[in-house]
Amino acid sequence: MISRKQHIAIFTTASLPWMTGTAVNPLFRAAYLAKYGDYEVVLVIPWLSLKDQELVYPNKITFNSPLEHEEYVRRWLEDRIAFALRFSISFYPAKFSQDKRSILPVGDITASILDDDADVAVLEEPEHLTWFHHGQKWKSKFRQVIGIVHTNYLEYVKREKHGQLLAFFLKYANSWVTRIYCHKIIRLSGATQDLPRSIICNVHGSNPKFLEIGKRKQEQRQRGDQCFTKGAYYIGKMVWSKGYRELLKLLSEHQEKLSDLQVDLYGTGEDSDQVQQSARKLNMDVRVYPGRDHADILFHDYKVFLNPSTTDVVCTTTAEALAMGKIVVCADHVSNDFFKQFPNCHTYSGNNEFVKITLKALSEEPVPLTDEQRYELSWEAATKRFLAAVELNQKISDKVPSSLKSKTQKLQRSIEEASAFLHQTMSGIETARCAFGAIPKTLQPDEQQCEELGLVLNRKENVSQTLML
């Protein structure tokens, strides 16, 4: 008898062309799992109606249909990997929350997957995907539910008005929803809050293009050519919380010692104008430019990547800079623990040390990456770490019969079921949803979303299953 392949559904909270980690990393994960594992993989991404697309996607890029959006995503990925894409793409209805700057699901997104295919669900940002979930329980629908925590939400919330109080409640909300909906949680680094049944493992890799750039730089060096002709730079979404505040503060406090330093900042975001104004006040050469693709040839000749951010969980651009063979100067922070194994990662623990390490980095050449170090940065290695962390290589087994469970297990299961029932009840009440931050009228998709996604709207119940594209 031929055993069927495991089905893996990867749900994420963002999609290209929004160049955010939760759009890019799950996309690569789907491609590499489908390539290297004996799995049927589907990537489930949010579909936004035109009005929300215009708020989220850069350069006025919009899509008239999910099929058009899928074609864009596939083209982008095909330009960056050298193998055939063997995964499928499905969409769930979503809306954009302007105050949270986040995409939130609409309706029961578990319906995107047929019951017969509901083996494994990977929730990229599990807390985000379950805060307002109302529908079939994730653990009831799927045999295994794995959460991957991308974002240090507590750190972001602390920077808002009444931040400490908000962070206190959010901490317990995150623990609650992940406990009742996930079997296992992967925290990319210790920068995230400790969650039930969680382990720390970086299961992200670098876009192969960056590793190729690094190889070419190494070949240049072997020929005796000068590899890096530019100094220091930083790239990231241009919002204060992404490290710009910390970097400009460091430069401002040490302008005399760093007077010969030129720093180029690249990014686009809500705080772009303020960042430019702050940079102009400095008595040193700090230039601000619009955001670009980090793989752009413009960045190839920079030698030092400055990244003082401590809000990232594992910074994608830091990994990319290391893959390109650059020196990275970053904070001695738990979010950078994975990068400390690489000789070109230089960490600092104080302002004076930042100056010392930055000047030293500018005066020396990067250490060439070994094959082993290059592999550790790759998506091949990240996929291997992911499979080991969640033990997907094991065969799917039926649920343990209740007669074999201990009294403690039975009690724990009963408590979780009661807790899930409470969450389901609260998330089904419109006033309660809105009070806790949900977008109004998102219990089920509206008529426009149903038409765009090929859903059938039942006003008395919820929406029927999504048509796979």
Automatic annotation (TrEMBL):
The record's catalysed reaction(s) read: a 1,2-diacyl-3-O-(beta-D-galactosyl)-sn-glycerol + UDP-alpha-D-galactose = a 1,2-diacyl-3-O-[alpha-D-galactosyl-(1->6)-beta-D-galactosyl]-sn-glycerol + UDP + H(+)
Keywords, sorted A to Z: Chloroplast, Glycosyltransferase, Membrane, Plastid, Plastid outer membrane, Signal, Transferase
- Decide whether keyword Iron is in the record: no
Organism's domain of life? Eukaryota
Q: Name one GO cellular component term.
A: chloroplast outer membrane
Compartment list:
Plastid, Chloroplast outer membrane
Domain (Glycosyl transferase family): give its ranges: 232-333
Q: Where is the signal peptide?
A: none
Per the record, the major location class is: plastid
UniProt record similarity statement? Belongs to the glycosyltransferase group 1 family. Glycosyltransferase 4 subfamily.
Q: What is this protein called?
A: Digalactosyldiacylglycerol synthase 2, chloroplastic
Q: Show the taxonomic lineage.
A: Eukaryota, Viridiplantae, Streptophyta, Embryophyta, Tracheophyta
